[in-house]
Design goal:
- This protein is α/β, with parallel strands linked by helices and 403 residues long.
- It folds into two domains: 10-48 and 293-389, Aspartate Aminotransferase, domain 1 (Alpha-Beta Complex), CATH 3.90.1150; 51-288, Aspartate Aminotransferase, domain 2 (3-Layer(aba) Sandwich).
- The protein has 13 helices and twelve strands.
- The strands form three sheets. Strands 2-8-7-6-5-3-4 form a seven-stranded mixed sheet, sandwiched between helices.
- The longest helix has 24 residues, at 292-315.
- Mean pLDDT is 94; it is low at 396-403.
- Bound molecules: pyridoxal-5'-phosphate.
Length: 403
């Protein structure tokens, strides 16, 4: 039977095509041909979940009390662990009864927040490049997006002062993310103060994604939005266990901050899901309570890979700034080559998968994102193939296209 007459809702049609789709196709074909792919394209950490977390999950699985529907708002114990963790890290007290909400991964919450707060036509400010959920969530909700184009000469920070008055007056929400995926940029505390001032002045909801809270190196400590006085009146912050604890498959994240906003998201989610399997919430508590030595190991692993790859790329002519957080390098394409073409030719010629920057918005054109999700042996093999295929950066002026 022909089902052409059942059309998807307009909100699906509003989404830009996934740049990843063509890359995925090529990946499948390359694998079929028996090519040994080195996949540095995803943001999927390659390590195992820490053993104490796995053991806590196994024990919790054996407890029938965990087998029913979990409470909508997450278990009281996990919420308390979240606010205790937050206090330990940032010295800010939050109420576990309303200022913290567990999520099925932060992507779920980031997207549903837009469904809960955006009416069709509402103006939402989103940096470009950005993590796709930051603009795809609002687009699904019918938002009009105003892209804040990020530039390397401003350290990939949002130029708050350059946002036109009329846009600021109209804007309802601003999404942002430092340390940043994909640019790996970090923001100083003064930047957070400036954006909080801005949001308070124009009454804009600030949505900060701090998913790389702990993947930071060389003594750098990322700032949390809620450390800034007054931020809780206009903001929420999303966290995840996916990256720090190698728990991407477990789907555990949380949001903290303004209680009305958290409540609005909770109301929506009450109508959509039942939250995280209670056994996994118990395991997540174990993760947030792991000793700092665990974090140091994870940080050391990514730092070693970062330094290794930056050195290797330098030999091929690339000058890649050394990021002090995240699990990515943000690498300029060779002069005059577009992101998609470059990523596709790297894949075809070397079997190395990198993500074209324009997958994160037009502001990412001219760059590719390389994830540090393989060990140095594999990174060394990737570099060897680059060299053999003559893939290198020739210094010159990069022209990034603008909106
Ligand atoms: C990986 C990532 C997420 C997704 O986290 P989940 O909790 O696994 O959904 C969210 N934001 C950014 C910026 C990320 O890089």
């Amino acid at each position: 039977m022909n089902l052409d007459w059942i059309k998807p809702a307009d909100r699906l049609g509003s989404l830009p095509p996934y740049v990843f789709a063509r890359l995925d196709e090529l990946k499948v074909r390359a694998r079929e041909q028996g090519l040994d792919l080195i996949d540095l394209g995803m943001g999927n950490p390659d390590g195992p979940t820490p053993q104490p977390v796995v053991e806590a999950a196994i024990a919790a699985l054996q407890n029938p009390a965990n087998h029913g529907y979990p409470p909508f708002e997450g278990t009281a114990s996990f919420r308390r662990t979240i606010t205790d963790w937050y206090y330990r890290r940032y010295n800010v007290k939050l109420d576990p009864e309303g200022e913290a909400l567990p999520l099925l991964g932060s992507k779920e919450g980031l997207t549903h927040l837009a469904i809960a707060y955006v009416n069709p036509g509402d103006l939402v400010l989103v940096p470009s490049p950005a993590y796709p959920a930051h603009f795809r969530g609002p687009l699904i909700a019918g938002a009009t997006i105003h892209s804040l184009i990020l530039k390397p000469d401003n350290g990939w920070l949002i130029d708050v002062a350059a946002i036109p008055e009329a846009i600021a007056q109209q804007a309802k929400i601003l999404y942002f993310n430092y340390p940043s995926n994909p640019t790996a940029a970090t923001a100083p505390r003064e930047f957070f103060e400036e954006i909080v001032d801005f949001a308070r002045h124009y009454e804009i909801l600030l949505v900060h994604d701090l998913c790389y809270a702990e993947l930071a190196f060389d003594g750098y400590q990322p700032t949390s939005l809620l450390e800034i006085p007054g931020a809780k009146e206009i903001g929420v912050e999303f966290h995840t266990l996916s990256k720090t604890y190698n728990m991407a498959g477990w789907r555990v994240g949380f949001v903290v901050g303004n209680r009305h906003i958290v409540q609005g998201l909770r109301t929506l989610k009450t109508n959509l899901d039942y939250g995280i399997f209670a056994a996994l919430q118990t395991a997540a508590e174990t993760a947030l309570q792991l000793p700092d030595v665990y974090l140091h190991d994870v940080q050391a692993r990514y730092r070693t890979r970062r330094d290794f790859l930056i050195e290797g790329l330098a030999e091929l002519g690339w000058t890649v700034p050394k990021p002090n957080a995240t699990m990515y390098l943000w690498v300029p394409c060779p002069v005059g080559v577009g992101s998609t073409d470059f990523a596709l030719s790297v894949l075809q010629e070397t079997g190395v998968v990198v993500t074209p920057g324009n997958a994160f918005g037009s502001g990412g054109e001219g760059y590719v994102r390389v994830s540090l999700i393989a060990d140095c042996d594999r990174l060394s093999e990737a570099l060897r193939r680059f060299k053999q295929a003559g893939i290198c950066y020739k210094p010159g002026t990069l022209v990034a296209s603008s909106d």
